[in-house]
């Protein structure tokens, strides 16, 4: 078949998928341990031998079933019979027994609808899984899954426009009618399912992970991947209306993103959108100031009068310091508003233990369940300290690199034009290289530190990475701004000019390197798809086969990191190069659509995780804003010497006065703007009242509660009463 005919066939297949889509809830792809002689296929994944005792231990580790599970015990007994008398077996045999047991548990214990087929190259067994409405209701009740109630027309007040959320309880048909119902497209309807597709995905995942250790299977090379089933119709809509540069100026439909990608990922895009809009004001003001300085020439005088450049520098530094606090506080309000609208105000994630977590199995006194417990916490804390010591070692390497770059620049004949730019370019490349190396080291260290849950692991990794990248990204700028002028002097005595050149060079090189980074995942995805099509002998590739070739999207850690480092350049150093906010604005607006494009084109659909905040990044952003106030003040007073002070003591006194004044102002702004909007505060109280009435019959009106349930106080047995006079008389 020619390439043009194959392209037409693929196009027709996509059209069929759009018109008639067989939507499942979840996809599990096992590596195929069975030989397929009809295909040019070599079973290379399971060729090694394993001890029989170790194989039995692994088999039991893969499943969470207990001794009362008949299906599991039957499979275990059959596997033990197979191992009898054998010292070693093929790993292929373990994989076959494991997959068969998993299939039986999925179908006979969980009663899931499972459809299976081989991938086109016969390398994977692909299971398409769907749960019935009845079984979803059972699981929702067991895990207290939160659903939205049907709206009631009461007073139609603002805080009543979001229907309350409540844990689902399976009682009777009449009781189920108090919850919203949805059609297959996720739209509200009178008669439909209680669950949207995203709810089905979470519940099916909860059912599967409650009985099978998917992470352990993946770690032991039996499972290739597991991921939520995508919806071609919704995905195509997102590609057309969200993941495209043509829509760069349009607001995101957060509700649509939340219903497809989940609240955690949507929080990132909501924050990024607000960040982009916030950047407009610093970009406009900074660009105006930059143009004025370019026309008039930067004039940092040494006489007693303040020049125009000095006045603009002072005003811009004050503006950025205050604007950063407004950004933080307004986002906290937005975050709390979204959490209320999504029913996640009191959300607390119930996390499973990580498969790599090392500990002794024991009964948890809190939950009563058997779980791994790290009995040696002293060793864990020691590993954490070693991890941070390694980070400090890498920080010292960065310092050595920067010192080396400045020393090399001092040997150049041209210390101003090309010499200044060379330092910026070399520093930008050094930043990228050191970030890449340290990322690998930080991940290994965090793995070694042995964290129990995913959130603990990600917080530890985030702090390590950001702490290092903070120093790596800003140390050369800090040196030029606050140290270089005193130790070695600046070109023509103008450290502000050197600082602006260094910042501009770093950003332009970063822009070039980021474009290369963005192109690599695209080319990698194309290559994987080409190899997959080649191995399938030109056959039509199914939707699941195609998704299996895509990369997995775990967390927006790298995306947050890149944006927050850019935010740091704005709030810490933009006073030195007032065009920085404009550059960051353009890059951030581009990043929003590029991240959207990556999610829709290059990665599998991520698991729709829930969250009510951006987590540890909020703390990092707030710290950056505080540090920014100090740096901007320091650049104005020490680097540019706007106030033309000759005495270091006078400079330090003025620095402390302005810096403390900014901190007090930032504190007052944060106190004046409440963290929780009034509509969300009232809505939460009202929601709790409605939930108590609808689910538990607990009326908020005490008179109605008293009369409906006959809750009246009874008279004392002898019917005798006393008054104050009798008490006084001692009767």
UniProtKB/TrEMBL annotation:
<feature type="transmembrane region" description="Helical">
    <location>
        <begin position="652"/>
        <end position="673"/>
    </location>
</feature>
<feature type="transmembrane region" description="Helical">
    <location>
        <begin position="614"/>
        <end position="640"/>
    </location>
</feature>
<feature type="transmembrane region" description="Helical">
    <location>
        <begin position="275"/>
        <end position="295"/>
    </location>
</feature>
<dbReference type="InterPro" id="IPR007632">
    <property type="entry name" value="Anoctamin"/>
</dbReference>
<keyword id="KW-1133">Transmembrane helix</keyword>
<feature type="domain" description="Anoctamin transmembrane">
    <location>
        <begin position="258"/>
        <end position="682"/>
    </location>
</feature>
<feature type="transmembrane region" description="Helical">
    <location>
        <begin position="461"/>
        <end position="483"/>
    </location>
</feature>
<dbReference type="Pfam" id="PF04547">
    <property type="entry name" value="Anoctamin"/>
</dbReference>
<dbReference type="GO" id="GO:0005254">
    <property type="term" value="F:chloride channel activity"/>
</dbReference>
<keyword id="KW-0812">Transmembrane</keyword>
<keyword id="KW-0472">Membrane</keyword>
<feature type="transmembrane region" description="Helical">
    <location>
        <begin position="385"/>
        <end position="408"/>
    </location>
</feature>
<dbReference type="GO" id="GO:0016020">
    <property type="term" value="C:membrane"/>
</dbReference>
<feature type="transmembrane region" description="Helical">
    <location>
        <begin position="307"/>
        <end position="327"/>
    </location>
</feature>
<feature type="transmembrane region" description="Helical">
    <location>
        <begin position="567"/>
        <end position="590"/>
    </location>
</feature>
<dbReference type="InterPro" id="IPR049452">
    <property type="entry name" value="Anoctamin_TM"/>
</dbReference>
<feature type="transmembrane region" description="Helical">
    <location>
        <begin position="503"/>
        <end position="523"/>
    </location>
</feature>
<protein>
    <recommendedName>
        <fullName>Anoctamin transmembrane domain-containing protein</fullName>
    </recommendedName>
</protein>
């Amino acid at each position: 078949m020619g390439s043009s005919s194959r392209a037409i066939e693929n196009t027709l297949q996509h059209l069929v998928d759009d018109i008639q889509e067989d939507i499942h809830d979840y996809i599990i792809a096992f590596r195929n341990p069975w030989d397929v002689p009809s295909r040019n296929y070599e079973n290379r994944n399971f060729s090694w031998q394993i001890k029989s005792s170790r194989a039995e231990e692994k088999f039991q580790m893969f499943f969470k079933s207990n001794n009362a599970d008949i299906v599991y015990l039957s499979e275990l007994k059959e596997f033990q019979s197979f191992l009898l008398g054998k010292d070693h077996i093929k790993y292929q045999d373990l994989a076959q027994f494991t997959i068969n047991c998993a299939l039986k548990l999925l179908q006979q214990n969980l009663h899931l609808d499972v459809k299976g087929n081989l991938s086109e190259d016969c390398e994977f067994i692909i299971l398409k899984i769907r749960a019935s409405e009845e079984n979803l209701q059972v699981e929702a009740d067991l895990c207290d899954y939160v659903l939205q109630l049907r709206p009631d027309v009461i007073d139609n007040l603002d805080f009543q426009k979001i229907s309350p959320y409540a844990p689902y309880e399976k009682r009777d048909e009449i009781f189920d009618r108090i919850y919203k119902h949805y059609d297959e497209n996720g739209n509200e309807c009178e008669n439909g399912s209680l669950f949207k597709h995203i709810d089905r995905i979470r519940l099916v995942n909860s059912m599967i992970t409650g009985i099978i250790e998917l992470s352990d299977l993946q770690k032991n090379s039996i499972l290739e991947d597991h991921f939520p089933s995508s919806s071609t119709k919704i995905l195509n809509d997102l590609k057309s209306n969200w993941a495209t540069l043509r829509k760069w100026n349009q607001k995101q439909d957060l509700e649509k993103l939340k219903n497809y990608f989940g609240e955690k990922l949507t929080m990132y895009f909501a924050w990024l959108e607000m960040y982009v809009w916030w950047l407009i004001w610093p970009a406009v003001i900074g660009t105006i100031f930059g143009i004025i300085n370019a026309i008039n020439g930067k004039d940092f005088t040494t006489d007693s009068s303040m020049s125009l450049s000095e006045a603009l520098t002072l005003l811009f530094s004050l503006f950025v310091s205050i604007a950063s606090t407004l950004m933080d506080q307004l986002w906290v309000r937005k975050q709390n508003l979204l959490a209320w609208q999504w029913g996640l105000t009191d959300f607390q994630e119930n996390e499973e233990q990580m498969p790599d977590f090392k500990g002794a199995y024991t009964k948890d006194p809190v939950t009563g369940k058997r779980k791994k417990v790290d009995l040696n916490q002293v060793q864990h804390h020691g590993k954490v300290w070693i991890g941070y010591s390694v980070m400090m070692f890498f920080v010292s390497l960065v310092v050595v690199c920067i010192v080396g770059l400045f020393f090399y620049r001092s040997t150049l004949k041209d210390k101003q034009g090309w010499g200044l730019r060379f330092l910026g370019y070399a520093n930008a490349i050094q930043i990228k290289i050191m970030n890449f190396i340290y990322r690998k080291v930080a991940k290994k260290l965090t793995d070694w530190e042995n964290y129990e849950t995913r959130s603990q692991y990600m917080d530890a990794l985030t702090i390590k990475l950001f702490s290092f990248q903070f120093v790596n990204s800003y140390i050369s700028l800090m040196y030029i701004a606050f140290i270089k002028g005193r130790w070695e002097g600046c070109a023509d005595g103008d450290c502000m000019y050197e600082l602006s050149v260094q910042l501009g060079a770093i950003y332009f090189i970063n822009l070039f390197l980021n474009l290369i980074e963005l192109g690599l995942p695209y080319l990698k995805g194309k290559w994987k798809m080409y190899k997959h099509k080649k191995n399938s002998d030109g056959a039509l590739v199914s939707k699941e086969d195609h998704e299996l070739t895509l990369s997995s999207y775990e967390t927006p850690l790298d995306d947050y990191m890149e944006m927050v480092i850019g935010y740091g350049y704005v709030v810490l150093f933009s006073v030195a190069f007032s065009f920085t906010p404009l550059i960051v604005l353009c890059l951030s607006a581009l990043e929003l659509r590029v991240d959207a494009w990556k999610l829709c084109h290059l990665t599998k659909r991520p698991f729709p995780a829930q969250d009510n905040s951006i987590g540890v990044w909020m703390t990092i952003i707030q710290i950056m804003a505080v540090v920014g106030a100090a740096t901007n003040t320091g650049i104005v007073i020490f680097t540019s010497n706007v106030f033309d002070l000759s005495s270091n003591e006078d400079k330090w006194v003025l620095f402390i006065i302005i810096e403390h004044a900014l901190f007090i102002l930032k504190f007052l702004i944060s106190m004046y703007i409440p963290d929780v909007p009034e509509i969300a505060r009232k809505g939460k109280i009202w929601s709790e009242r409605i939930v108590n009435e609808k689910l538990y019959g607990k009326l908020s009106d005490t008179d109605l509660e008293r009369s409906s349930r006959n809750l009246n106080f009874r008279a004392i047995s002898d019917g005798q009463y006393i008054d104050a006079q009798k008490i006084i008389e001692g009767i």
